Amino acid sequence: EVQLVESGGDLVQPGGSLRLSCEASGFTLTNYAMSWVRQTPGKGLEWISAISKSGGTFYVDSVKGRVTVSRDNSKNTLYLQINSLRADDTAVYYCAGCMVFKNGWCNWLDPWGQGTLVTVSS
Amino acid sequence: DIVMTQSPLSLPVTPGEPASISCTSSRSLLHSDGYNYLDWYLQKPGQSPQVLIYLGSSRASGVPDRFSGSGSGTDFTLKISRVEAEDVGVYYCMQGLQTPLTFGGGTKVEIK
Lengths: 122, 112
Description:
- The structure holds 2 protein chains of 2 kinds.
- By secondary structure, chain A is mainly β.
- In chain A, about 0% of the residues lie in helices and about 55% in strands.
- Chain A contains no helices and 11 strands.
- In chain A, strands 2, 4, 5, 6, 9, 10 and 11 form a 7-stranded mixed sheet that branches.
- Helices cover about 0% and strands about 50% of the residues of chain B.
- Chain B is mainly beta.
- In chain B, the strands form 2 sheets. In chain B, strands 2, 4, 5, 6, 9, 10 and 11 form a 7-stranded mixed sheet that branches. Chain B has a 4-stranded antiparallel sheet with strand order 1-3-8-7, with no helix packed on it.
- Chain B is globular and about 40 Å long.
């Protein structure tokens, strides 16, 4: 069964750091591009970062410079390092697989993990 | 960035009746390859989003055939031919044409 399981969410103070993990089972991460999507009550779903099959990375402007996406092929695990956390980073963070048709490297998202909650508050 | 706009915000439905959700993009999602890079997701209560429709009209594996996607360019529609109780949740459209991928604000479907 194809599955993604996130972990690492926590309550952190503003300015702090956190590393989120996304362990894949049932498929090999390096065969797919992968994404991170976050969900907040106020802003809905926001695609924030991705890593291509070849290791190229993408970051949305709202997190650029504070976030790093990476993967450990030996552990079949995707990571998201978030630094300088702010209150508006409070969200449920999902990892998701990128499906590609003919163009680009992320045309739709499948599967999705169950999400991990990050709360930024003093 | 491409802006995605959904309507309505909320949709009360009667089981057995049809339902329809609209999604508009700020630029055309029709690629020169002939495909529209528009997807639909359903987030059931307490769950993560799951893909229903990709490339405008292709149903994802396991999705019932009462769900259908249509449209081209900037205007798209998700239709449920006969709503069932298990269809409640928030529906999102998303454009997969260019990065950053962007989502609509969501349509909450609930039973009357």
